[in-house]
UniProtKB/TrEMBL annotation:
This is Coenzyme A biosynthesis bifunctional protein CoaBC. CTP binds at D276, K285, P301, D302, I303, L304, F320, K334, K338. The keyword Ligase applies. Its EC number is 4.1.1.36, 6.3.2.5. Residues 189-395 are annotated as: Phosphopantothenate--cysteine ligase. The keyword Ligase applies. GO terms for molecular function: FMN binding; metal ion binding; phosphopantothenate--cysteine ligase activity; phosphopantothenoylcysteine decarboxylase activity.
Length: 395
């Protein structure tokens, strides 16, 4: 029997924890509950105790509890810790590694997988601090579900509602499923991601809209399959995925040098939106009073094409193609021109750059496969499996 330690945070959605416990019990899970102090304002320990058929734990300072079972023991006995609902405050405390109540102490002291189901006001969910905390928790290896969108208890509309209990159960089952086989163990994979910045003067630069999300998701997915991953990242505000070696660069030429240094690799996935041109930067800030400046552009090295010709060419070389029209046609031509093995083509005319989803076409020698629109994580997971297939077939 799998044991779930359910931490119930103090939000209006705490009432849904009762339904979650009921669903888990009917599926044969043992559920033990911990409530934060704030959660008591929304649901009673009696309700959760009756449904979980167990004692409910609420404080670090209960002498009787400590005598019967040290608080650390609570998480040791669990197969999975689920935080539902996770408030903005609780997630912030988790991110900071605080241990100022029973819930956060358990979360800091555990080595068990943690699944977080957030619920909060739409503006709190959209706040930069929460976004930063969610990204950091994910980088720390915590699974953070995306909240549902809809009418909220506070009358506002938008994302922030607790995912429905059946969806939380599905996420619990996915988290407890055995880890994917480490199909890429012993392989080194290079990933480039993000934009490059090409300085004009000490305060200005040429950039593009790449967020780095797709490349970082690919690096994370490859690491989950056991690969040693080197991620060469342009300037982005993203945390380093768990288990990935990261090298930060700014310009295309720095990216080319970094790529060169980390070879050899079994495979390379060039997701970066590398600037095609640079300018010779002015040493001083260009002043407005001077004559209107003219930028003279010089071509950057094509990192992918250079790698394709190099004696260290990885066995599997994958490029990305960001296109705004005739996507497949351009990608097919780009694969041949750059002598890449595969090109992953995406249409960036919509909200792909910076967005959460991507719809891609995988262009290989064998033809073109169009994948349905998927979250960037799912695109990454599927591509990582395909890379594992290809490397296994080649060896
Ligand atoms: N790329 C690269 N070095 C460059 C430019 C691009 O390594 N200087 C890589 C990208 O990482 C991507 C692929 O080449 O994997 C295609 O990038 P893209 O910008 O779509 O192609 P370009 O060659 O720049 O062609 P164009 O901008 O004309 O479409």
């Amino acid at each position: 029997m799998k044991r779930i330690l359910l931490i119930v945070g103090g939000g209006i959605a705490a009432y849904k924890a009762a339904e979650l416990i009921r669903l888990l019990k009917t599926r044969g899970y043992a559920v033990r509950c911990v409530m934060t102090e704030a959660a008591h304002h929304f649901v009673t320990p009696m309700t959760l105790a009756a449904l979980s058929e167990d004692k409910v734990y609420t404080t670090l300072w209960d002498l009787k509890d400590e005598a019967e079972m040290g608080h650390i023991q609570l998480s040791r006995e669990a197969d999975l810790i689920v935080v539902a609902p996770a408030t903005a405050d609780l997630m912030a405390r988790m991110t900071a590694g605080l241990a100022n109540d029973l819930a956060t102490t358990l979360l800091l002291a555990t080595d068990k997988p943690v699944l977080v189901a957030p619920a909060m006001n739409v503006r709190m969910w959209g706040h930069a601090a929460t976004a930063r905390n969610v990204a950091q928790l994910r980088a720390d290896g915590v699974t953070v579900m995306t909240p549902d969108e809809g009418i909220m208890a506070c009358g506002e509309y938008g994302p922030g509602r607790l995912p429905e209990p059946p969806a939380i159960v599905a996420a619990i089952e996915a988290t407890l499923a055995p880890a994917p086989p480490k199909r890429l163990a012993g392989r080194h994979v290079l990933v480039t991601a993000g934009p490059t910045h090409e300085p004009i003067d000490p305060v200005r630069y040429i950039a593009n809209r790449s967020s780095g999300k797709q490349g970082f998701a690919i690096a994370a997915a490859l690491a989950r399959l056991g690969a040693r991953v080197t991620l060469v990242a342009g300037p982005v505000m993203l945390p380093t995925p768990h288990g990935v070696d990261r090298i930060d660069v700014e310009t295309a030429r720095e990216m080319a040098d970094a790529v060169d240094r980390v070879l050899p690799a079994d495979a390379a996935v060039m997701v970066a939106a590398v600037a095609d041109w640079h300018v010779e930067p002015s040493q001083q800030k260009i002043k407005k009073g001077d004559a209107t400046p003219t930028l003279t552009l010089a071509e950057n090295p094509d990192i992918l094409a250079t790698l394709a010709r190099s004696p260290h060419r990885p066995r599997l070389l994958i490029g990305f193609a960001a296109e705004t029209e005739r996507v497949i046609e351009h990608a097919v031509a780009k694969r041949v021109r750059k002598t890449a093995d595969w090109i992953v083509a995406n249409d960036v005319s919509g909200d792909v750059m910076g967005g959460a989803d991507n719809s891609v076409h995988l262009v290989t020698e064998a033809g073109v496969e169009s994948w349905e629109r998927l979250p960037k994580d799912a695109v990454a997971a599927r591509l990582a499996e395909r890379i594992a297939d290809a490397l296994e077939a080649a060896s």
